[in-house]
Specification:
By secondary structure, the chain is mainly α. The protein has helices at about 15-35, 40-70, 85. It has one domain. It starts with 14 loop residues before the first helix and ends in a 7-residue tail after the last helix.
C-alpha cells in the first residue's frame, strides 16, 4: 500500500523522452543565443574557468616537445635561422 504523499503508480519518463527534452532545451538555448547574444557572458565565463584546464592539458605536449627537442616554432630552414613557416615557404625548398 502506498505511503501518504507517495503516488501509487509513479512512472518516470523514458530515456527517449528525457533525451528529447534536453535536445529541446539545448536547441532553445542556441536560438536565444543567436537571436539576442544572451549567452556571451556565460561563454566568456566558462572560457575563463576552463583556461587552467587547457593549460594542464597542454603540459604533456610541452614536456614531450622539450624532451625530444622538437617544436614547430624551432624547426628552421637549412640556410636561414628564421623558421620556415615565417618565411612563407616550406623547409624542403632550398
Amino acid at each position: 500500500m502506498a505511503m501518504p504523499g507517495q503516488l501509487m503508480f509513479a512512472r518516470r519518463l523514458g530515456p527517449t523522452a528525457r533525451l528529447m527534452i534536453w535536445l529541446l532545451i539545448g536547441l532553445s538555448c542556441v536560438v536565444v543565443d543567436v537571436r539576442y547574444h544572451a549567452l556571451d557572458g556565460l561563454r566568456s565565463g566558462f572560457s575563463l574557468l576552463l583556461q587552467p584546464v587547457r593549460e594542464v592539458m597542454r603540459v604533456p605536449t610541452s614536456v614531450a616537445a622539450e624532451l625530444t627537442g622538437f617544436s614547430p616554432a624551432t624547426v628552421s630552414c637549412k640556410k636561414s635561422a628564421t623558421p620556415c613557416w615565417l618565411n612563407g615557404r616550406s623547409c624542403s625548398s632550398g
